[in-house]
Design brief:
Elements: E1 7-12, H1 20-36, E2 38-43, H2 45-49, H3 56-72, E3 80-84, H4 90-99, H5 104-109, H6 111-120, H7 128-131, H8 133-143, E4 148-150, H9 156-173, E5 181-183, H10 214-222, H11 243-251, H12 255-266, H13 272-298, H14 301-330
Parallel strand pairs: 1-2, 2-3, 4-5
Helix pairs in contact: 3-13, 4-8, 4-14, 8-9, 10-13, 11-13
The structure holds tryptophan (TRP).
Length: 347
């Protein structure tokens, strides 16, 4: 392994299918990074359960979907280790160690958690597990000794909290945990919803999923929000804040053509329907190879299950090693479960 090769950890909460916003926000960079660095993809089912305890079937079903989504965009199981969080109980043990290194006040101040709590309307009735998910994420990140954590803008405070936990751990118990860095996508990569709201999200009902069939994609595109000030095709249109153009910026590789369309739109020389038809075509050809790969994996379910099982076993060995180091650093007499440590080895 060369010096510049880093360990990358990305994670998804399995709560539903991945959409175009996930693609621009994170999947695209995963696909790129996989060849340069050692990459783990964590399917964080325990984290997804922190706000879905009453609906665990949502999570278990989505594990499969997320796995297929990631494979279908081109993550190569030869390069990427796919890990199921619940298959690595050592992560829960690390979480427990870290819970003592954060305060309730700090958890409540985490901007990401605050925003999500507001969206979900939790108030004081937030499940404790949800409030503490950044701590379990710190276990994920440190458990794989990740150097780089590609995340969307909204997850940066969670990585910051991980860094704080690491600083505290290392200063109390000695240099043990590896310090990661968040890696965010290029500015402008955040994709608005089809309704023009700032964020594409399943819960807002404004998402185009990677697994949507072509006719559904077309229908969603033709129903997109555009420029509300424009009533006829001959009115000058607004390109800024218009999600149709945001999508063209993200997915149409023919830059010249996009710029020309923008100019015509601004001048009132092209209608919404024509621009949408073009976008439907662009998205259609972007999604076609993704759909094809997905179909081919769907036809081999045993192999797909094997990718996750084998990756989880491999990931578990890595995390078990870190847990052993962490327990030793704290000075706890780790009790052997016969797998990872001989009894009282640290004494
Ligand atoms: N919280 C992340 C999200 O909602 C998912 C996640 C879980 C994650 N564990 C992780 C991301 C570790 C990066 C690293 O998208």
């Amino acid at each position: 392994m060369s010096e510049t090769r880093k360990t990358v950890l990305t994670g998804d909460r399995p709560t539903g299918p991945l959409h175009l916003g996930h693609y621009t926000g994170s999947l695209a960079s995963r696909v790129e990074l996989q060849h340069e660095h050692h990459t783990y993809l964590l399917i964080a089912d325990l984290q997804a359960l922190t706000d879905n305890a009453e609906r665990p079937e949502i999570v278990s079903h989505a594990v499969w979907e997320i796995l297929l989504d990631n494979l279908s965009v081109g993550l190569d199981p030869e390069c990427v280790t796919f890990v199921l969080q619940s298959g690595v109980p050592e992560l829960a043990e690390l979480t427990q160690l870290y819970l003592n290194l954060v305060t309730l006040a700090r958890l409540q101040r985490n901007p990401t958690v605050k925003e999500e709590m507001r969206e979900k309307g939790f108030g004081a009735n937030v499940p404790a597990g949800f409030l503490c998910y950044p701590v379990s994420q710190a276990a994920d990140i440190t458990g794989f000794e990740a150097n780089l954590v590609p995340v969307g803008e909204d997850q940066v405070p969670v990585v910051e909290q991980t860094r704080e936990i690491i600083r505290r751990f290392n200063s109390l118990y000695g240099e043990t945990l590896v310090m990661p860095e968040a890696m965010t996508p290029d500015i402008g990569a955040r994709l608005p919803g089809t309704d023009g709201r700032a964020k594409m999200s399943a819960s807002l009902g404004n998402a185009i999923n990677l697994s949507d069939p072509p006719e559904v994609v077309r229908e969603k595109v033709m129903g997109m929000y555009t420029d509300p000030t424009r009533t006829r095709a001959t009115d000058p249109g607004h390109v800024e804040g218009n999600p149709v153009f945001a999508y063209l910026d993200a997915f149409d590789s023919d830059r010249g053509r996009v710029e020309e369309m923008k100019a015509r739109y601004r001048a009132g020389r092209i209608g919404d329907v024509a621009v949408k038809r073009h976008l439907a075509e662009v998205l259609g050809s972007f999604l076609a190879p993704i759909r094809e790969r997905r179909l081919s994996y769907e036809a081999r379910p045993e192999e797909v299950r094997g990718i996750l099982a084998e990756g989880t076993a491999r990931g578990r060995r890595v995390v078990a090693d870190v847990l052993r180091k962490a327990l030793a650093a704290v000075g706890l007499p780790a009790v052997s479960d016969g797998r990872r440590l001989s009894t009282l080895e640290v004494w």
